[in-house]
Amino acid sequence: QQQVKQSPQSLIVQKGGIPIINCAYENTAFDYFPWYQQFPGKGPALLIAIRPDVSEKKEGRFTISFNKSAKQFSLHIMDSQPGDSATYFCAARKTGANNLFFGTGTRLTVIP
Amino acid sequence: NAGVTQTPKFRVLKTGQSMTLLCAQDMNHEYMYWYRQDPGMGLRLIHYSVGEGTTAKGEVPDGYNVSRLKKQNFLLGLESAAPSQTSVYFCASSARDSQYNEQFFGPGTRLTVL
User: Could B102 and A46 be called an inter-chain contact, meaning their C-beta atoms sit closer than 8 Å?
Assistant: First the structure.
């Protein structure tokens, strides 16, 4: 059973557009929600992360929005660029643990 | 710093053969992990280790064994490979006191079992 549900599976946007990737969870024991970015042929790398005590976090063009009551969080990429084309994974971690539960991934393509 | 390295990068096995995947990290991290990545399934944790000499099961441990004899190395073994184990395998490591528990991933090993 997938502990973190991610959508959409794939996404195509024009350069400058704002792709949005959504994730949802059920387990209220999760206390940390990172996003990882993976380029073809490479391992995933941490992009940005948020804790549930804040509703939004921005790092450059990347923003996480967090809705604790709905148990949902999303990644927004402002002014998307072709270099942002990659697979994005959301994840969640339980309090006191180190293991991450990953979503199924979203393949983003930004068209020039 | 090489970060996290994995050996080999590619491997083809026949059903029933055995092999060991090697992961090495030079960041002095306490925690190490093995994941498998399959299309539409995301990354699933196979086994992990919180320190030298310790291992624990993750979400999908069946058919795999691991060992952490040295802090910098984490080995993943397949005793009798099956076609269902065809996948891309990623190793990762993280520091014990990392504020964001950032996991650093290796480049992956693509394994095909015929």
Answer: yes
The CATH number assigned to the domain holding A83 equals: 2.60.40.10
If you classify domain B4-97 with CATH, what class do you get? mainly beta
What number is the average pLDDT over the span A19-36? 95
Dihedral sign computed on CA atoms, order A49, A51, A56, A59: negative
Residues across chain B:
114
Question: Where residue B62 falls among pLDDT bands split at 50, 70, 90?
Answer: very high
Interface contact flag, B90 A44, Cβ < 8 Å = yes
- Would you say residue A98 has pLDDT above 90? no
- Reply yes or no on whether the pLDDT at B22 is more than 70: yes
For residue B100, is pLDDT > 80? Answer: no
**What residue ranges do the domains of chain B occupy?**
4-97
| Cβ-based neighbour number of residue A1 at 10 Å | 5
Query: Quick one: pLDDT at residue B98?
Result: 64
Q: Which of A72, A74, A76, A75 is nearest to A28 (CA)?
A: A72
Q: Distance from first CA to last CA of chain B, Å, rounded? A: 36
Residue A41 located in a structural domain = no
- Chain B: closest CA distance from residue A15 (Å): 26
CA A46 to chain B, closest CA, distance in angstroms equals 7
pLDDT given at position A12: 98
Residues from chain B that touch A93, judged by Cβ atoms under 8 A, are 101
Domains in chain A, number: 1
Task: Tell me the nearest-neighbour CA distance from B55 into chain A, angstroms.
Answer: 13
Asked if the structure places residue A42 within a domain, the reply is no
Residue of B nearest to A96 (CA): B101
